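User: Here's a chain of 68 residues. Predict its fold as tokens.
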Amino acid sequence: MREYGMEHVAIYHSHPTSEAVPSKTDREVNYYGPEMVHFIISLKDGTPVMRGWRLTADNATEAVWETF
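Assistant: Prediction complete.
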């Protein structure tokens, strides 16, 4: 990415059996700080649900975003 002048704008992962809400582990292993949006996709109920979050070790704030 650096070679092509690209940068991270978001990270995503799934929660197969739980809500699209950051876990304590998600917050603790956040290496990018609150600038990076973390999208979490819940597969709990069969229909994917995606929410975005800005994380710190102690807090999670839902990110405002829109799709195009």
